[in-house]
Amino acid sequence: MPTKYHAPTDGFVIDQRALRGVSMHLRYAIKGVRQQAGLPLTPHKHEGALETAQFVEKALLDVADELGIDMGADRPGQLDVSDAS
Question: What is the pTM for the complete model shown?
Answer without folding.
Answer: 0.85
